[in-house]
Amino acid sequence: MFNNFKTMCTWESRYNLVIGTTFERKASTRLSNWLKSVQDSGERPGWMLPHVFAELGQYWKTDKFKAISNQVKMARGSLKGGSLHTGGAKTVGTIAREMEKELGRTPIEPEVFKKTHVRKKENESDPDVWVEERIERTFNDFNKYVAENLDSSVQLTPELSTQIWKEKVVGGTYKGRCYGLGSRNDFDAFSQA
Hints:
Blueprint: H1 2-6, H2 16-41, H3 50-60, H4 63-76, H5 92-103, H6 109-117, H7 133-149, H8 158-169, H9 184-192
């Protein structure tokens, strides 16, 4: 599928690995979501061949599939999992770009994190309401690290902010992803290519 995609788009060859990996991850997620909706509905969609639908139906009834499904369900419910954000259908990357236009500069990491994890206020004077306690702790850890370790003369740039976020606050990347960056994880890989 990626080879077909490559015939319709162009980019510098140094980005092949990053673009290929991003494409595969996005395609995998989309296919997984489609198959889950097929499984839930129990009806064959027009894009799926009848014999494939029948084979999937058989597979979904096996003990092997049920065991994997339960394991994934448990992982999704664990405390280490992802977090809620208040952006709705907008990605974190889209929200960051909107903030950049609004602020006239690139927002630093905690600004984007706060924007995407604090509930909308009725009045500006209302206190911040975070979507999860763990998220508020992460935000406060960042601010504490900056206050304790950066000289007041040091300018907190977006690059320095992201470096502190990754290395000192959330403990680096896990399986190629950094907590709190959302869809910007994909674009961050470009800067390393």
